[in-house]
Amino acid sequence: MSIPNVELNDGHFLPAIGLGTYQIRGGQGIDQVLSAIQDGYRLLDTSTNYNSEGIVGEAIRRSGIPRANFFVTTKLPGRYHHFDDTLMSIQESLCRMGLNYFDLYLIHWPLPKRGLYLEAWKAMIIAQKMGLIRSIGVSNFEPEHLDRLITETGVTPAVNQIEIHPYWVQEKMLLENKKRNIVTEAWSPLGRGNQSLKEKVIIDLANKYKKSPAQIILRWHQLRGIVPIPKSSSLVHQRQNLDTFDFKLTTSEIKSINALNKPTGRINNQDPNEYEEFD
Ligand SMILES: NC(=O)c1ccc[n+]([C@@H]2O[C@H](COP(=O)([O-])OP(=O)(O)OC[C@H]3O[C@@H](n4cnc5c(N)ncnc54)[C@H](OP(=O)(O)O)[C@@H]3O)[C@@H](O)[C@H]2O)c1
């Protein structure tokens, strides 16, 4: 299956859908990532804090598909925001995955109370110059965090990966990213499999387009200009989640899904200004 690409502000290309790997682990996890690769996934999203970097690297090797065909993303944990720690963490992650560069490296959370994300960003700019990373980006960054990086270094993140699903639609943050020419990726794009998949508006659209509720939600993301990275350990779901490019929702249908937004819609109430990442 051919997956369209999205151009980043640094000239690199990001596949329009990827595989999340949070909670995919161990020997069984290798098989699950491998089945996704065999189905056509090339964007693989992991993180040092997921304990899945090693198995994602192993699945890439076992696939026999050339490294250059993949788009591998991982993320910097909060405990490594100091300059030297960031460089060390990038190199340690590369060794763990058995790779010699990342396509995309993200600061996992800004942790503004610690105030070190700018230091981490400066180290990532150096790592990019060293050839360890192709594109650099952030996750869970608010407009003021983005502006601090841009003003202090002149380098705009290529991607901001944030929580987005039908109960937390993020209209404002999506516009803020667009305004800065930053591509938005959606984490927990299916609301971690929550009740949104059973909402009447989603079910009605699924019946209309002969698609599953998950496919309707993933298409809703893509038509809003967002790259979703759904996690699935099921072969059937993995396949289904890739098969979203052959239909369109109307503008009013997109709005009807946006209307599911709730002011308290975050899955675990993780406010980027407050959240202290596990470390
Ligand atoms: N940057 C960050 O701070 C951050 C935070 C959280 C997550 N992430 C990333 O985002 C990825 C995705 O988020 P997530 O894992 O939290 O949640 P998610 O992708 O929204 O949802 C995963 C859940 O949806 C189910 N599912 C997948 N496809 C389905 C389908 N077609 N029909 C019905 N159910 C389906 C999965 O079950 P099965 O496995 O049984 O299919 C799983 O229970 C993560 O894996 C991780 O890579 C990043």
From TrEMBL:
Substrate binds at H108. The active site is at Y50. Keywords: NADP, Oxidoreductase. Gene3D superfamilies: NADP-dependent oxidoreductase domain. GO terms for molecular function: oxidoreductase activity, acting on the CH-OH group of donors, NAD or NADP as acceptor. Residues 17-261 form the NADP-dependent oxidoreductase domain. The record marks K75 as: Lowers pKa of active site Tyr. InterPro entries: AKR, Aldo/ket_reductase_CS, NAD(P)_OxRdtase_dom_sf, NADP_OxRdtase_dom. It holds the Pfam family Aldo_ket_red. Belongs to the aldo/keto reductase family. This is Oxidoreductase. The lineage of its organism: Bacteria, Bacillati, Bacillota, Bacilli, Lactobacillales.
